[in-house]
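Reply to dn_fold:

You asked what the input looked like. This is it:
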Amino acid sequence: MNYAANPYHFRQDSSFLYYFGIDRPGLVALVDLDAGESWLFGDDLSIEDIVWTGPQPSVAELAARSGIEHSAPLADLASFLEKARASSRKIHFLPPYRADTVLDLHRWLGLPLDEVLAHASTELIRAVVDQRAHKGPEEVAEMERALAITGEMHLAVMRAARPGMKEAQLTGVARGIAIA
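and this is what came back:
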């Protein structure tokens, strides 16, 4: 492909999106419960990125919009985590399901690759499941909106389908509705 972000359509991790509301790749959020602070680590877009995406909010702006107090370059994350580990603080994370996230956790936490999954926090998993199992009225409304869009997508694809069509053509019909 002609640009690093082009091989596949980016899909933000659902838990990241749920808790932080930011739909942009290359970001890591950290909540320090002991200090009562939250951090967003990531790099502002380069001029090459902006050529493809147009102007985008800075990491600091994204953090502020999400109620995250601090932001820093992604390169600072490893030393931030190392300080926490040196203080014998437990670092909680959800089980990674993407290979690149496993590699990142391996680098940031100094864990052997084959042990990263085993170090996922059961305590955090339980807390997330408990929180996400209870839906507020705004979440139910958003789910109903998503269901309506999904129904519209299915009907449009069924109406557009013809013998000999390529799946990519029908994917385009569905995707057009999803992003409209």
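Strands lie at 28-32, 37-41, 70-72.
Hope that clears it up.
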